[in-house]
Fold this protein.
Amino acid sequence: MELFTRSHGRRLSFISIGFLALAACAKNGEKPFLPVVAKVGAEVRAISTEDAKTICKSNYCEDNQVYVTQFGRRHHDDPAPAPAPPPGPAPQPTGPGPVPNQPPEQMDYSRSILNMSQAWAISEGSPSVIVAVIDSGVDYFHPDLRNNIAVNTAELNGRPGVDNDGNGYVGDVYGWDFYNNRPNGYDDNGHGTHCAGVIAAEKNGIGVRGIAPRVKILPVKFLGANGSGDTADAVRAIDYAVSRGAKILSNSWGGGGSSPLLDDAIQRAINHGVIFVAAAGNESTDIDGSPSYPASYANVIAVGSSDSMDAKSSFSNFGSRSVEVFAPGSSIYSTYPNGQYRVMSGTSMATPQVSGAIALAASVRTGITRAEVLEDLCASSVNRLTEYSKCGRMDVAGFIRRVSTR
Ligand SMILES: [Ca+2]
Ligand SMILES: [Ca+2]
């Protein structure tokens, strides 16, 4: 394998003192950071510097990168960030607890900018399309999400403590938590639940409505309660999402340097027919010149953030060669854990707008390819922000119209 040939003789830098400090200060609910990631057989796992001395003699190893949510930096015109819910154990599949009274359904400016009523006249999405939210997890009992979760029925109806569908994960009814290595991608941060609502909050008269309000969300957690995760868990999360039949992988996270192991996992997913959407990042940087990962890997659909005036969000990264499309990411209203709702800003919020639109496209035309998605998404985008992107600002009605007539 190419990875192994590349590995021999490669020197690991065991990067920065900062990461070592991070490892030393792991707090409650945060696991210690292991600075090396190794590929041992088919398994990818994080290891200590000490273990690397022996394991990396005969296996491919690289620096374990740290990734964080692409929640926007704060600006004077942004609302204060919502406090994260306290970390706790994942609710088990016995059912939801009591939820607060739900507000009536309301939609922010992004639904009108994206011409959603025209798009919804063509399709509200199909329950056979699964979008994996690879993030901090999802509140899968949220009243606006619980009917749109990709439930693993073999596990739900199977015997407890047994891997009923034989996929290597015991009890993965509502996805998997790779950060804590336990069943169900429950959200102890808030970020993943917000992204999930942008994609598929239900059309039910309460809360908010997602871009594709009838598709299914697969919760895949690899970011911890503190919003950060590493290469080893990201790779396992991507492979898991593909194995569960997700057609679209929505990735509102980034950071770190280039990782051959992560790139490999992404290309493996794409070769499987999956569409990988990623946030361009929030450093106000031209990523044509300084790449941002995973957005900058080949064949990834990278998303920048725009605002209610159709301008680039001040925090958003950009790149006329590296960013495919912009979508509204400033001040987006969506779901939040424990039956709540929040306004949040970031390329994190723009990314699920695009993932949701592609989910609609895949609902209208089963088996649509990544190349066809890109062609129609780009051709239908509005001629704005083209100095910052390949295609401009997404228009969902135009996109779905093109897909439906292809
Ligand atoms: Ca299983
Ligand atoms: Ca709703």
Notes: Residues 1-25, 74-81 have pLDDT under 50 and may be disordered. The longest helix spans residues 347-364. The pocket of calcium ion (ligand 2) is lined by residues 105, 144, 201-202, 204, 206-209 (CB under 6 Å). DSSP finds twelve helices and 16 strands in the chain.
